[in-house]
Amino acid sequence: MQTSSDRHEYPSHWEADVVLRDGGTARVRPITVDDAERLVSFYEQVSDESKYYRFFAPYPRLSAKDVHRFTHHDFVDRVGLAATIGGEFIATVRYDRIGAGGLPASAPADEAEVAFLVQDAHQGRGVASALLEHIAAVARERDIRRFAAEVLPANTKMIKVFTDAGYQQKRHFEDGVVRLEFDLEPTDRSLAVQRAREQRAEARSVQRLLAPGSVAVIGAGRTAGGVGRSVLANLRGAGFTGRLYAVNKSLEEKELDGVPAHRSVRDIGEHVDLAVVAVPAPYVPEVVAECGEHGVQGLVVVSAGYAESGPGGRERQRELVRQARTYGMRIIGPNTFGIINTSPDVRLNASLAPEMPRPGRIGLFAQSGAIGIALLSRLHRRGGGVTGVTGVSTFVSTGNRADVSGNDVLQYWYDDPDTDVALMYLESIGNPRKFTRLARRTAAAKPLVVVQGARHAAAPQGHAVRATRLPHATVSALLAQAGVIRVDTITELVDAGLLLARQPLPPGPRVAILGNSESLGLLTFDACLAEGLRPLPPLDLTTAASAEDFHRALERALADDRCDAVVVTAIPAVGETSVRDAALAEALRSASASSPAKPVLVAHVELGGLAEALSAAASTAPQTGPGPAGTTDAARPGEHSAPVGRQDPQRPSAGTGAPDETRLIPAYPAAERAVRALAEAVKYAQWRREAAEPGKVPEYEDIDEKGAAEQIDALLSRGTGLTLGAEDTCALLARYGVDVRRALPAPTPGEAAAAARALGYPVALKTTAPHLRHRADLGGVRLDLANEEQLHRAYAELTELFGTPEELRPVVQGMAPRGVDTVVRAVIDPAAGAVLSFGLAGAASELLGDTAHRLIPVTDRDASSLVRSIRTAPLLFGWRGSAPVDTAALEEVMLRVSRLVDDHPEVVGVSLEPVVVAPHGLSVLGATVRLARAPLRGDLGPRTLPVV
Fold first, then answer.
1. For a tag site, which of 35, 365, 664, 943 has the least CB within 10 Å?
2. What is the DSSP string of 812-849?
């Protein structure tokens, strides 16, 4: 716990771990009175030139007065932050609030002067840029809106830090000094700059782990079979291209299995990039300290005994991450299966997999080691056994995911030239908001296929994740919005991955089916219809079809403008030999080359020979021997993918090392599996086309954003976490152009009649009691009351059936035009962020879960797809001869609600129910709004690693 400086309590929420440009980490925290010695030591290590740039004059040392000034802050008008590694300062930044004439001031002055100092050894690592993001966030929190900085013209590095940040700024030169002034309100450009820096830094941090120049295995014992010794053997067996060391404090030998051996990592006379830690958990802290002091860049912690073992282990895990980050290191694990990089320049197998996977274009991520083994084995079998083209680029198993997560790996894969398709097995999503943002960007460049484990149960004990109130179906819908291909099993994960890795994306849903079995063709036809595809009538070539018949039929199908993809079905012919299998494989290969823009799949029945032949058709380097996890090249019948020599114009070069870059024709043992994979590819291709024009968030001139902010501030001054009354709800929504039909309270029959006269007949009488609200099916609503007599009769019926007026809370409301009753809601989820939901009103929709969801802010394209994505959408568009309703008005209401929630993070819940959509216009008959204090750091805040 840090000591508070002057006036305010120590702001612990300003502490953060950040990833720097080179992939290392640093700790950002407020400077306090306890930091005097650290500040002096830091300053002594700064060059005279850097000191001159900071103070505009020679300044060899800090005076006692300087030290006091730079360590005593009130955390409001005077704030200092430091970036630290190993507990020592590597950079500082401070601001001082100023008023007119640049003199010290207090609020309401909203400008501050800012200054940086970075140790020369750490310049160029992006430290100043990270500190600028954090000091700007602190300043905004303290109601400072502008920064001013004076910089010497020769200090080009610092000028670049300010100009590259993306803020709107003014710049002028006077008295030999460049003066910069810039607003701190985030802009589209500043946010884009921040996220681009985040991507580069986090990708680099993963790249340092996956492509080290040297690896030390700590815990490699004398006895074969131990975890550390196994990892060492796997690294050697893979042919790791860098330097390799064995470390064990009990070793007397100078070598272990031909690898230089040491008792401590500190005894290694050269730099070590990566340490694989395989010692019992109680000894890990000592190992981490030694690695940190030796300058190790990252750790793969195979050791167990952490959060998966209970509360005590969870605390050990937190301390492990804190300790590693102190030294600027990142961690894979603990309790990890390991990491693999098949690049010929690296050949890293720092895992428990006894065999190196074949090189390929598929990136694999698994939180579970067991699932990781299954994925590696499945891909090995489906690779065909005789070719290395269906393989893995990189594999990461994060175990307990204490530090490096799927988000970090996505950042790496995004611009990794060796990965064309990303497959992920996730048991938890620690930061769904960031994951969906990164997934959307990644999916726009390359397919991302995800299977979620633990969908109906809590996350594994080892995973510390923020709670989410959203059901699994909602999370899945948000992932789909981000372009993620979500499947249910690892079999489907591999099926989709193999198709996407080597086949082009289908231009549409029209599917040609051809083969030598009428029955299998009809099954494929039905499967296509079930998956929402548009199959053409199957072409039966009969069981007598030759390889040449298949060739001609496939060539014609691919040339047909009515076809977007082809599924070839095949069954074994009596007396068929391997020669004929090879002929059929070559026929399919050569025919597919005629139309490289359309995907081809094969569904076959127990045709091991054909699958082998399809693989062999383009094989240049047969492989034999055992595969990963004890598998062999003798794969199961049907578990194969077939490389076919056809360049993919839509994908980068495969880079597998084969002299002929080939495309796989994936082969599936069941028509349903082939069609399901194709259907996912069709949906993804459609998303890619739509993502190219993502739509816009409309600007509405009648929105009163300032007035809404003032109203919200006034309401929250009464207290936090409140649900607004009807009058305040209507007023706030009206500022955003959402008009709620007026409803008047009716605590007595007489007041009900007076309300009806004020509103004008016909009216509706309805209860607002929580147990009856929005439940027309329970009879708590009376409609089309044309006069006072009907109103009194309805009032008596309600009170007789359901209770006293005090219990029912009846209201009177003018009748709205007839239409379709819908519901529009927005909610702030603590993990996923702001979500807009839409569905039809009524128990049936709730029972079936027929609700669609989009992340806020919603674009015009999002709103249009939201209306059309529910199963009951036909009711809005003239089902069974009914009049279509005004969906344009409905979409506008959604967009306005989205704007309200996006503009004001204090709005944590909005519910419009029902929204009656008529053929012309709509009526909002009921609304509720909930407010709460906005979080101090939102999604627009500075870059930071998750808090442990």
1. 943
2. EEEPPPP-EEEEEEEEEETTTEEEEEEEESSHHHHHHT
Q: How far is CA 273 from the centre of its chain?
A: 28
**Angle formed by the axes of helices 547-559 and 578-592, to 10°?**
20
d(CA 171, CA 156): 14
CA angle 69-72-78, nearest 5°?
A: 85
CA angle 74, 78, 80 (to 5 degrees): 100
Distances in Å between the alpha carbon of 304 and those of 330, 403, 465, 882? 17, 15, 19, 63
Tokens matching residue 935: 């979080």
Task: Note the Cα 478 to chain centre separation in Å.
Answer: 10
Distance CA 146, CA 130 (A): 18
Please list the ranges in the chain whose pLDDT falls under 70.
1-7, 383-390, 454-470, 573-581, 606-663, 720, 774-777, 831, 936-940, 948
**What distance in Å separates the CA atoms of residue 942 and residue 137, rounded to the nearest whole number?**
7
Residue with tokens 């030694």: 290
What pLDDT is stored for residue 398 in this prediction?
A: 93
Positive or negative, the CA dihedral 297, 303, 307, 308 is positive
Confidence at residue 622, expressed as pLDDT on a 0 to 100 scale: 30
* pLDDT tens track for 809-857: 899 999 989 999 999 999 987 767 889 999 999 877 888 889 999 989 9
CA distance 811 to 767: 6
Using CA atoms, how far apart are residues 924 and 936, in angstroms rounded to an integer? 33
Partner residues linked to 931 by β-bridges = 722, 907
- Calpha distance 94→79 (Å, rounded): 5
Please name the helix (run of DSSP H) or strand (run of DSSP E) that holds residue 523, with its range, or none.
Answer: helix 518-530
Q: Which residues contact 727 (CB under 8 A, 6 or more apart)?
A: none
- CA 247 to CA 229: how far, in whole Å? 10
Q: How far apart are CA 567 and CA 577, in angstroms?
A: 23
Where are the extended beta strands (E) located within 830-905?
833-840, 851-855
Phi-psi region of 858 (alpha: psi -120 to 50; beta: other; left: phi over 0): beta
Q: Which tokens go with 176?
A: 């030999």
What are 576-626's pLDDT values in tens digits? 444 466 788 888 988 998 889 999 999 987 645 555 555 554 433 333 333
Q: Which residues contact 311 (CB under 8 A, 6 or more apart)?
A: none
DSSP codes of every residue in 713-754: HHHHTT-SSEEPPHHHHHHHHHTTT-PBPPEEE-SSHHHHHH
State how far the Cα of 898 lies from the Cα of 35, in Å rounded to an integer. 45
* Whole-number Å distance between alpha carbons of 883 and 875: 9
pLDDT at 387: 28
Round to whole Å and give the CA distance between 774 and 756: 21
Q: Phi and psi at residue 775, in whole multiples of 5°?
A: -120, 70
Whole-prediction pTM: 0.85
- CA angle in degrees (0–180, nearest 5) for 387-391-392: 155
567 within 8 A of 675, measured Cβ to Cβ: yes
* pLDDT computed for residue 411 by the predictor: 97
Query: Which residues touch 755 (CB under 8 Å, ≥6 apart)?
Result: 744, 745, 746, 763, 811, 812
